[in-house]
Amino acid sequence: GENVEQHPSTLSVQEGDSAVIKCTYSDSASNYFPWYKQELGKGPQLIIDIRSNVGEKKDQRIAVTLNKTAKHFSLHITETQPEDSAVYFCAAVDFNKFYFGSGTKLNVKP
Amino acid sequence: SAVISQKPSRDICQRGTSLTIQCQVDSQVTMMFWYRQQPGQSLTLIATANQGSEATYESGFVIDKFPISRPNLTFSTLTVSNMSPEDSSIYLCSVDDYDGYTFGSGTRLTVV
What is the nearest CA distance from B18 to chain A, expressed in angstroms? Predict the structure, then answer.
């Protein structure tokens, strides 16, 4: 089955700096790669996603890149703000089956 | 994207009892999913619930422990049966809508 690894497990950055979270996956059949933000006491919220026919996608301060050959994808957050502090999960999806990474706790220091 | 209402948001239950969690969606969706998130952990799929058929359970999860109903295209329930402290987790439903996969806000269950 699919195996998704996510790094780092914790990330601390200064407000205004960039944050990068990386995920690798093992199953080449996975074709959809969403990223979720989970704040304390809340369910995961989709923040950006990318499909396997696209190499990069950007939405304001958030971008995701996908390298299908190397089987890795990354989340980039620029100009981080304290409100970005949360746990971020990546996932690789194959036909509605989600395989989540272990999560990254991002702390943005004011 | 779909809006999901999940109830209850939290509960504290005695061991040996059962709790039914409800998931209501504001639009018709084909597939609904139930996840468990143990404290400080990632999400693990329990089962996929399709309307009109039995739920499909993932390895390690069985129907007797986690019975699921899916009476129509906007509603599903997950029951956690004969609870033990190890069942203390956040339980989340998720749907596949045209905008991607949306999660409910979760049910935080504590078993004492």
Answer: 22
Cα of A49 to nearest chain B Cα, Å: 8
- A vs B, Cβ pairs < 8 A, gives 44
pLDDT in tens, A46-85: 999 999 888 999 999 999 999 999 999 999 999 999 999 9
Structure tokens at B81: 């049966």
* Chain position carrying tokens 């509605």: A96
pLDDT digits (tens, 9 = 90+) for B54-95: 899 999 999 999 999 999 999 999 999 999 999 999 999 999
Q: In sequence order, what are the beta bridge partners of A109? A: A14
Cβ burial of B1 (10 Å; 0-12, 13-18, 19+) is middle
Q: Nearest residue on chain A to B92, judged by CA atoms?
A: A43
Q: Is the dihedral of CA B36, B30, B2, A19 positive or negative?
A: positive
Look at phi and psi of residue B52 and say left if phi exceeds 0, alpha if psi is from -120 to 50, else beta. Answer: left
Tokens 């809006």 locate to B3
Which residues from chain A sit within 8 angstroms of residue B96, using beta carbons?
Answer: 96
Q: Using an 8 Å CB-CB cutoff, list residues of chain B that contact chain A.
A: 1, 6, 31, 33, 41-45, 48, 92, 94, 96, 99-106, 108
Tracing tokens 């040996």 back to the chain, one arrives at B16
Query: How many residues are listed for chain B in this entry?
Result: 112
